[in-house]
Amino acid sequence: MTNKVLIPTFEREYLTREALKKTTNTVLHLMFNKLSDSSFGTHFLEDETSAVTELLLEADSCGVPLLIPAPVCPDYLKGGYVLGESIGDYARNLVKNIPRVGRFFQEHGFAVTFELDIADGDAEDEFLEPLLGIPKKEFLRRTKSTEEAVKREIEKQKIKSIEVGSLLARTKEMGVDYRLRQKELAEQILGLRLRRTDQALDSLVKLREGEFEELGIKKSQYLTAAAYELAGYSLYGELIGPDGLILITSPMAGVCVTAINFLKDNSAQFSPTLYLREKKERVTGLFLND
Prior knowledge:
49% of the residues lie in helices and 14% in strands. The chain is an alpha/beta fold. The chain has a domain at 18-26 and 37-123 and 132-175 and 240-264 and 271-276: Rossmann fold. The strands form four sheets. A three-stranded mixed sheet has the order 3-10-9. The longest helix is centred in the middle third of the chain and has 22 residues, at 136-157. It starts with a strand and ends in a 14-residue tail after the last strand.
C-alpha cells in the first residue's frame, strides 16, 4: 500500500510519497545551483520556494507540463537602445540555454513547456517610447521581425515544446492596458522608499547611466527611467503570477530580477523566478521584506 500525506495548500488532495520526494529533490537542486550558473530564491526564498513547490506538485498530480515563461529582450544593439530586427544576443543566448533547462527538469521527472514573450512593451512605455526616435508602427514591425527570427532559430535547433509570442499580445489577451499599468507600477516603485526598491533603482541607474545619457535623459530623471524599466518586470510578474516558473537569462537583468515580485504583498501571487547568469557574475546580497 502506498503511503500518502495530506497537503493542506492543495485543497485536501492526497499525493504519493514518491511525488513529494521528487518535488523536494527538484526544489533543493534549484536552490543549491545544481542547474549550473543559476540563481533561485535569492531575494524571496520562502515565498518563491513555496510557489515552485506547488507548481511542481500540480504538474505531477495533474500530469501536465511545468510552464516556464520568459520575457525576451528586443534586438537592442550593443546593450543600448538602438533597435535592430534580428534575433539579438539576448534571445540567442536564451534559446541556447533552453535545452539544458529542459533537461534539468526532465531528469527530475517533470515535462516542461516554454513560452517566450518578445518584450515589445517599450512601444507603450510612456517614458521611454518618445526618446527612442522610432514610430510605434516601425518599432512593432522590428520586434515582430525579431519574433520570427526567434522562431527560425528554435526550428533550426530542433527544440520542441516552445511557443513564441509577444508581451503586448499577452497583455491584450488578459485585458491589461500595458501603458497605464506600467505607469502605475513605476509611480509605486518611486513612492515606496523601501530598501529593496531603492537598491534596485540605484543599481539599475549605475548600469544604465551611459545609455540614459545617450538617449538625452536628464540626470534628474534617471530614477524615473529606471523605475519604468523595473515596472516592466513587475508587470510581467503580475501577468504570470503563480502559474509559471519565470526564466530570466540576461546580464543586464540581474538587478531587475527582484522586481518580478518586490511589489507583491500577497505571497500566494509570487512568481518563482529562475535567473541564468553569466559565469563571471556573482550573486550579492539578499532583499529582505521591509
